[in-house]
Every structure is written in structure tokens, then in C-alpha cells.
Amino acid sequence: MAYHHGDARAALLAAATAMLEREGAAGLSLRAVAEAAGLSRQAPYNHFANKEAMLAELAGDGFAELSCRMGASDETTPFARLAAAADAYIAFGTERPALFRLMFTRELVDLRRHPGVQSKADAALATLAAVVGQVVPGDAVNDATLVAWSLVHGYTELCIEADIDDPSARPDRALLFARAVTGLSK
Question: pTM for the full model?
């Protein structure tokens, strides 16, 4: 593949994204990503300091996508928007399990060393908090957001790692989590 000047970074990230889901983060190398992108072995080093920096970029893109998905509902009621956000979270994690793991595991990417990525993670949490804030009173939003995130994240991890539920159960589980969070407002 031939890339025009300026497209190398995008080509590297696209190749890394595809490889991530096939091989996992541990199996990625800058050299393999460059080869998959049709670029020289040196090309990644023109854009990323090291493998962690490239993985951090992928994680940041994942948080941005997750935030968009959670906030994209056109549902008309706050409860339905919360259920849709939970469903979107579960869908994201189960559709992109390697990226999901990368985003929430410090083993390969420590977000504390990547403030730009940490800000995208914080924005995803803020998106969820905004949706939760529509169903619980203001003084309960922080606690309810923690409960919501814990429920949906734990369930998503169990779906990925232990295959605990049939994918068709996802919408019902999202409703269950929304009912649990809404119950915190009483």
C-alpha cells in the first residue's frame, strides 16, 4: 500500500487497531504494525515514542468512541437514555474486547503518563454522569455514577471473559442496570 504524506499516522493506527483485536495488545509490536500498514520499520517512531504511546493513542480513541456511544441516544425519557447508555457500553466492550481491555488495564498503558488520554477517559465518565444525573438527584450523582459504571463494566467484563450471558440478553441487562441506578434516587 502506498500512503501519501501525512497519512502514515492514520495508517499506523488503523493497522494497530485491526491487529489489536486479532492478536491482543501484548502481541503488537511497532515493527509488525509498520509492516501491516505497508510502511518502513522506522515509520512508527516518527509518530510514537514507543509501543505504549501508540497503545495510549488507541485507548484514547476507544474512550472517545465509548463516550460518543453512551451519549448518542435519541431516547425521549431519562430512564430510557440511561438504559441506552448502558446498552451502548456493553455493546462497545463486547464488540471490541481487546480495545476494551486495553482501555482499562494499566499493565500496558498507564493513563497517568498520558494526560490527553486520561482526559478522554474522564470525558467518558462525565458522559455517563450526565446521563445518570437525569435520573437521580444532584447530591446522588457521583455515587450513582460509580454504581452505574461498576455494574455495566463488571457485566461487560464477565461477558467478555466468562461468556456469562447470551448477547441477546444485553438489552434486558441494560434495563436492569438502569432500574438499579434509578432506585438510588429514592
Answer: 0.91
- Among 140, 128, 146, 151, which Cα is nearest to 81's? 128
Cβ atoms of residues 103 and 121 within 8 Å: yes
* Helices marked H in the chain: 8-23, 30-37, 51-71, 78-95, 97-104, 115-132, 141-162, 170-182
Say what the pLDDT of residue 107 is.
Answer: 87
CATH code for the domain of 155 = 1.10.357.10
For the CA atoms of the chain, what is the radius of gyration? 18
- Are 13 and 105 part of one and the same domain? no
Band (124; pLDDT cuts 50, 70, 90): very high
CA distance 53 to 114: 8
Phi, psi of 108 (to 5 degrees): -105, -25
Nearest to 47, CA basis, from 107, 106, 6, 17: 6
Q: What is the pLDDT of residues 15-65, one digit of tens each?
A: 999 999 998 888 889 999 999 999 999 999 999 999 999 999 999 999 999
Q: Which residue range is the domain that position 32 belongs to?
A: 1-48
